[in-house]
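Lab manual, section 2.4: Encoding a predicted structure.

Procedure: take the sequence of the chain (227 residues), apply the prediction step described in section 2.3, and record the output as structure tokens. A sample record is shown.
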Amino acid sequence: MLKLILLSSAATLISAQDTLFPIHGTDGQIKFSVNNDGSASTVGTFSAPIFDAATSIQAPSITASTELMVGETNVATSFEANAAERAAMQQTIDKLEADSAANQIAEQEQNSRVEKIEADAATNQAADTELGERVSKAEAEAEMAAKAEEEQATKIAEMNQAWEEKLASQEATFTEKLTAMETKHKEEHDGQQRVIDHMVKIMSRFDVSGELEKLGQLNGVAVAGGE
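Recorded output:
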């Protein structure tokens, strides 16, 4: 305890020796002092029309009612300009954020549209693929049908040609047989005609008129008897 009292007394002595001009308040506390090293300290605010510093000023905060000059720069005006710039920048930032939000919404809508277009394209692609398969199948079936029709047409042409050849052959055979029959019939007819002509010539050599008259009479009697 004695040690603490001694240390406190020493500190007070040193402080009293460092402080050249202390000003106490009504509460007995030092409100303003000028120290031995040339520094000054105050409790509360410090006001002066002009304050000059050779090297630097250090303070938690500095308030100026009209202007605060740092070199040739008016800090208050700079603050006002900076505040205006910050306000304009904030407006720009707000606008950019709003535009970004709108762009994000538009991008989402665009993405939805793109996804729908891609889905529609995939559906159309599948439909085109299916349609292509159907067309290929129809073309293959049409090609097979055309080939079968061509083969059938070839067979029909071959059958027609064979039938025509057979018909021509049968017609030639029939014509040949007909010609032979006509020739034979003509020969037979000519032979009979020659026989008849020869018999006429023979009968013309005999006078049979009386016999014919008698034959007529006999024929008349027979007819009368029959009646």
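Check your result against the sample. Residues 112 and 200 are 124 Å apart (CA to CA).
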